[in-house]
Amino acid sequence: MASCSGPLNEELQCSICLDVFTDQVTTPCGHNYCRTCLNKCWTNTLTWCCPTCKETFSRRPDLEINKTNGTVIEGDVRMSQRALFREGDTGKQPLLRGTDQPPLPLPRKRILQRSQVNILLRGPRNNNSAPEHNAESLAQHLKENLNQGRSEVFCDICDERKQKAVKSCLTCQSSYCETHLEPHHRVSRLKKHKLINAVENLEDYICQKHQRPLDLFCRDDQTCVCLSCTEGDHRTHNTVPIEEESQEKKLVQTQTDVQEMIQNRMEKIQEIQHSVELRKRNTQKEKSASVELFTDLISSFERCQSELLKMMEEQQKASEKQAEDLIKELQQEITDLKKRNTELEQLSHTDDHLRLLQIFSSLYSHPHKNWTEISIDSDVNVLPMNRALTLVKKTHETLKKKLSHTALKCVLKFSVDVTLDPVTANSYLILSDDGKHVSHGDIEQDALENPKRFDVSLCVLAKEGFSSGRFYYEVQVKGKTQWNLGVARESINRKREITLTPEDGFWVVIVKNENHYIVFDNPVVMFSLRVKPEIVGVFVDYEEGLVSFYDAQHRSHIYSFTSQTFTDKLYPYFNPGLNDEGKNSKPLIITPVKIKRINTSRI
User: Fold this and answer.
1) 114 shares a domain with 134
2) Could you write out the DSSP letters of every residue in 311-351?
3) Does residue 404 share a domain with residue 342?
4) Which of 62, 271, 317, 486 is the most buried (most CB within 10 A)?
5) Residues 475 and 518 in one domain
6) Is residue 44 one of the residues assigned to a domain?
7) What is the pLDDT of residues 109-153, one digit of tens each?
8) Facing residues of 591 across strands?
9) pLDDT in tens, 510-540
10) CATH code of 479's domain
11) Which pLDDT does position 85 carry in this prediction?
């Protein structure tokens, strides 16, 4: 045993087979052996003597069961055949093992180690027993055994200093170093054994049912079997040698898939590079148009112009950096795939066919990132222009129209489907069955108590919440004299009067008396619009900290909250206002976003 010390070997090993005792018996002279080993020694002989002390017995003695060690080893699975060796004139030779004999069960090192611990903890058996081991030496002993088994494959025969194994024999079910492998190259019957490169988990190559090498492949069940399996459960199945099956699965398809993935990623690089170039042209075009427009404006806009160009440049650099990172990632995946392709090519020439089949599924795994969904936005994001415009109290109408058109063009592609959440609705609100209409009812509705429901404020949230990215939705306000629209964070107070400020978790535009707009920004902003909007668009860029409001029908900007910090999930917020004796009875209506509404040719 590889992990036993000298005294412990004597406690557990049969001196004939050098393995752990199986059905341990004691001769009249006091020596211990496996019952089977001793019976083999006394087969076909007329004299009976002890293999250790050579004491001769006049008749075949009755063997006594050794109950002392038997209680420790009883129930343990016998350790695997160690390619039993003895000293002789011709060197070490294996005993009691031929090619026509079935192999012993595979090693169960942990069970043996547990038996060792039992013996050590039980203490001396008699005056001639091994010396006691203290807890510290026992722990060190087991630690060395475990560490030794994890890193490399060691020879199962070496008793003192373990040598690294170079081959594993599937017939013997043992691993050998160069020295102990020599009989397999010299002895004729051992030359017939099946050798493979040394493996740690030798049991993976052995049929656990019949303890024979797995040298056949069942195509019906897609599993490796031994010869005995073909005489039982797989008798009528289509079985072939594993070499033949391995030859047919030389990973040709896998290599083809890898090469196709490499090609797809190279095409993706070209697509990204094209998008970057297109964005460069669009950026340059927008820059030129902006410079021309700002040149015609008064000097008070010069600072705004400089800031706008700076923001656009930063966006372009960010886009290029994103493209650069994506290209690097793609190139890295290509490198990894090429490396895997090389490994697959090497494996296609391996002789370890069983190992190849067992790791075939893991070799077939590929990068999981779906590059078909990755792209570079080639449109110029001009939403920050609105932030610059808020710094100027008087905005030129031409510039404002220009920016509003371009901004809406950008945000429309982030449109989402929004539905009202009845669980959050104030009990005076009436919601349509499809969750798209909300209006104020003069009579309180029956509503179950819910911690999400607004008890005082006449508002309702959408079912959909957003904690990242960008989203845009539109609401019809036609015919209404008062309404509130915007977004609110999930953790807002819903059980008392609320203040619609960013500090309290609301980013909302308030409308009173048809055209009186109030925004509780810092500072509070009040204004009116020349044209009353009928459809209001709300856009949120979570990472940018931006909430913008648009007149979707007339393609104009209404207001933007900028430089906000969002840490909570945001929900679309709706307040249809009081009915006001029928003057404000029209509902707020969530409407589908119509992309064709923006006609860029008119900009």
Assistant:
1) yes
2) HHHHHHHHHHHHHHHHHHHHHHHHHHHHHHHHHHHHHTT-S
3) no
4) 486
5) yes
6) no
7) 333 333 332 333 233 333 333 333 333 333 344 344 444 444 589
8) 474
9) 999 999 999 999 899 999 999 999 999 999 9
10) 2.60.120.920
11) 42
* 587 phi/psi in degrees, rounded to 5: -85, 160
pLDDT per residue as tens digits for the range 77-108: 333 334 334 333 344 444 334 444 444 444 43
* Residue 385 resides in a domain: no
Out of 240-254, 399-413, 418-432, 436-450, pick the least confident. 399-413
Q: Is 300 exposed, middle or buried (0-12, 13-18, 19+ CB in 10 A)?
A: exposed
Strand order in the sheet with 32-34: 32-34, 24-26, 64-65
Please indicate, yes or no, whether residues 270 and 355 belong to a single structural domain of this protein: yes
- Which tokens in the block code for residue 404? 């509003």
Where in the sequence is the domain holding 409, given as residue range(s)? 397-602
Phi-psi domain of 580 (left: phi exceeds 0; alpha: psi -120 through 50; beta: other): left
One domain for residues 543 and 469: yes
Beta partners for 483?
511
Express each pLDDT in 152-172 by its tens digit. 899 988 887 889 999 999 888
Hey, CA dihedral for 389, 394, 399, 402, is it positive or negative? positive
pLDDT of 116:
36
Helix, strand, coil share (%) of the chain residues, nearest 5? 35, 20, 45
The torsion angle over the Cα atoms of residues 44, 45, 51 and 55, rounded to 10 degrees, is: 160
300 lies in the same domain as 438: no
